[in-house]
Design a protein that fits this description.
The protein is mostly helical. The chain has a domain of 43 residues. It is 53% helix and 0% strand. It contains 3 helices and no strands. The longest helix has 12 residues. The chain starts with 7 loop residues before the first helix and ends in a 13-residue tail after the last helix. 0% of the residues are buried. The model has no long low-confidence stretch (mean pLDDT 89). This is Acetyl-CoA carboxylase carboxyl transferase subunit alpha. It comes from Oligella urethralis DNF00040. Pfam families: DUF3460. InterPro entries: DUF3460 (IPR021853). Keywords: Transferase.
Length: 62
Amino acid sequence: MMGSYVSDVTQFIKQYKKDHPETEQKQREGRLRLWDKAIDLELQEQYKSARVPQKPYVYYNK
């Protein structure tokens, strides 16, 4: 019996996805646009080698 409970939020999300089947595809496209990007390893190495070391306390004038 304990496994049969479904919260209001879960019910809403399931109903929304049923009414708007394009939602999951839009989510995947958004993820690809923002997070799943190809990383250029050579360019990353150039960025790392060009980094200037920072002093431990940047506001100290010496």
